[in-house]
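Give me structure tokens for this 361-residue protein.
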Amino acid sequence: MSLNYKRIVIKVGSNVLTKANGLPDLERIEHLVDQISRIKEQNKEVILVSSGAVASGKSLLSVSDKFDAVATRQLFASIGQVKLINKYSELFEERGLVCAQVLVTKEDFRDRLHYLNMKNCFNILLQHNVVPVVNENDVISVTELMFTDNDELAGLIASQLNADALIILTNVDGIFDGDPKAVGSKVIERIDQDFKGFSGIISAKKSEFGRGGMMTKSNMAHKVSRLGIAVHIANGTTANIIPRLLEREVLNTYFVPQKIASGKKKWIAHSENYATGVVRINDGAKVALTSAKASSLLPVGLVSVEKDFKKGDIIRLIDEAGFYIGLGIAEYGSEKARERLGVKKQKALVHYDYLFLNPQN
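Here you go.
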């Protein structure tokens, strides 16, 4: 039985779209567009998050080593993005489809208003049967404003658009239970919500042409699946990987989705970089919050306010040892929170509807 996803975010990495010499693989780009066109015929909505701009830029220009890495990346991205989107536009047009370029930075997601503006942009494109082609705007991003990689961006967009599924295409068949090159290593075909221990089986090594590695993919996939979105990590170099995956005909790692979270909770989940305040909670509150039962953060569970915040701000929750527990929207400011530290029968600082817990807890 085929997977009946209606709205799909497809992320394709540099290691899929780039040849061994660092130049773009135009045949594979065309095959990707062909696959997307075929599944679009089944009335599915597709958002493509595509790397490859820097590689495309390298195919047009050579640069001296004397320039710093960020400036060189900006140069390659600015000229390469034009070539890449033109290629996508040409290929989609040949198949009777229109694509749109959407370039974003972390700053575009810094608050709820910008987040919703971005969501509205995607929705109007999808309503007109346009294929959004999304990439980080490396032209204006500097190191501290960059996403970890396009996996993080794809996860954010899948959550934002309430996608049914996120398909991450890399150059291996999925997440292995050891070194993918080692004899006897096997693909983990199914990862449930209670799975822990990515660090024990996954190398921290990053891909040659991208910024991210399998660890960031795994952690992001786990987070997104907890928000109610199915995630697949599959081999983008395999012929017809997307339609074959949707027909369950190919090996991949499947992250089983939990119950669907609210739109606001999905926003909170990806807002760690924008958290204003920090509160430290005691072990009792930690146990309550991380149990199977839905619990709010009450003042009786607070140890201290580490960083000030206002009502409505996103705050970061840490345990007594300083480890990250989760994020939530503050129901009142830090001044009131300090007054109520450890006091019973007080209004929750964070209601469970506006709380997202770290998947690694």
